[in-house]
Amino acid sequence: MIVTQAEGVGVLRRAMCVVSAVLVVGGLGIGGSAAAATTPGGVAAWGSGGYGELGDGSTAERLLAAPVPGLTDVVAIDSGRGHVLALKSDGTVVTWGYNGFGQLGDGTRTNRGTPAPVAGVTDVVAIAAGSDHSLAVRSDGTVLAWGWNGSGELGDGSTATVQTRPVRVRGLTGARSVSANNRHSLAVTADGGVVGWGSNNGGQLGGKDTTEVRRVPAPVAGLANVAAVAAGSEFSMARHTDGTVSAWGRNTNGQLGDGTDLTRSDPRPVSGLGKVVDIAAGSNHGLAVLSDGTAMAWGFNRYGQLGDGTTTNQHRPVRVRGLASVTDIDGSLNHSIAATAQGFALAWGLNHRGQLGNGTFANSSTPVLVVGLSGVRAVSAGSALSAFSIALTTTT
C-alpha cells in the first residue's frame, strides 16, 4: 500500500498503532542484504524532487511515499546525489533524476523525471550509484560505468571528465558486486579480494599515496575473503565471510569505527563487530546489520543519522535504537533507512525535505516509520545535492 500526501493525517494516526510492533520483533537470522529481491516489484519514492528523482515526472517535494508510475519487474535499486538506478528482472537498467554529468547514461546531460532504459546495457546482475556516476555488473563479471569521471571513478583509463554513455571498466573481470560513492568505486572479485579506482585523497583505495588518482582498478592490499563492499564519501568498508568488517580511509568523524579519528589507508577491523550480514556506508557514517536482525551504526551523527537517540559522533559502533528484524539498510549524507522482515521501512536523521517519509519535516535521532508503505524489500537513501529516499516494494 502506498498513500498520497493528502491521506497522510489518517495514515499517521494508524501508523502509531503498528510502529511499536515493527520495532520490537526479535531477530530472524537474516542471511544478507535485500538489495536484490527474489520477487520483482515496483519502486516508491519520497522527499525532495527538484531534479526529477522521485520519478513521477514532476519536480515537487513529497512528504509521503508514492509509486514511481509504470515501473515494474524491478529486482534492485540504488541512488546517488540526485539520480536513481533500477535493475529489472530481464537484466536491463532504467534511470531517472539528476543528469548534470551523464549519470543517467542516455547520451545527454539533461535531467529526466521519469524512468528510461540505459541503451545497450543488458545481462546486468548488480548495480551501484555513486554521487554522480553509475556502475553495472554484467553476468560475465565485467563492469560498465558512466557519468562523472573527473577523478577516474569510471575506471576506463581515460581522462575524459564525463561519459554520457556506458564504458567498460578496464581490465576488470570476475566482479561479483560493486559499490560507489563520492569519487571512488569498489568491486569484489571472484577470489574474495577487492579492487578500487578513482580518488584516493582520503586513503579510501588503500596504499600509501593518498594523492593518487587511479583511472583503472587496482587491488586493495590486505583484504581477503570479502563478501561485500560499501563506499563512503572518502572511506571504504568490506564485510568478510566470517561476519567481521574492515574499514579504511578518512576518519575525521569516526567513520572507520576503530575508536579513533585517525585517517589510515590500511584496512583494519571495525571495533567489536561480528556476525554481520549486511553493510552500508553513508557519506561519513557506517551501518551494519547483524545476524539477529539488529543494526549498528558509527561515525558522523550531527542530525541523528546513527539512530542511537543522540546527535553525538560515535567512534565505535552503537546500536540503532529499537530497530529489529532488519533485512536491508542504507545511509546518505545525513539520514539512514532500513527495511524490515515485516515489509516496513523506517528512517532516521535529517528530515528537512521530508526524506524520512513520516509526513513531517522533523528530524529524528531514532527510527520512525515510513508512513503508508508496505511490502518493502530494499531501500536506498539519496544524498547531498538532493534529500530523498526510495524503496523496492512487492506492491506497485
Form type: globular
Q: From N to C, what is the helix and strand string?
A: HEEEEEEEEEEEEEEEEEEEEEEEEEEEE
Supply the helix-strand structural class.
mainly beta
Low-confidence blocks of residues: 1-37
- How big a fraction of the residues is strand? 35-45%
Counting DSSP H or I runs of 4 or more residues, the number of helices is 1
As a percent range, the share of helical residues equals under 10%
Write down how many β-strands occur, each being a DSSP E stretch of 2 or more residues: 28
* Overall residue-averaged pLDDT value: 91
What's the quaternary structure here?
single chain
Q: Give a short account of the largest sheet.
A: 8 strands, antiparallel
Jot down its keywords.
396 residues, mainly beta, globular
3D structure, described in words:
The protein is mainly beta and 396 residues long. It has 1 helix and 28 strands. The protein has one helix at residues 8-24; strands at residues 36-47, 62-67, 74-79, 83-88, 93-97, 112-117, 124-129, 133-138, 143-148, 162-168, 175-180, 184-189, 194-199, 213-219, 226-231, 235-240, 245-249, 264-269, 276-281, 285-290, 295-299, 314-319, 326-331, 335-340, 345-349, 364-369, 376-381, 388-393. Strands 1, 2, 3, 4, 5, 6, 27 and 28 form an 8-stranded antiparallel sheet that branches. The protein has a 4-stranded antiparallel sheet with strand order 7-8-9-10, with no helix packed on it. It has a 4-stranded antiparallel sheet with strand order 11-12-13-14, with no helix packed on it. The model is unreliable at 1-37 (pLDDT under 50).
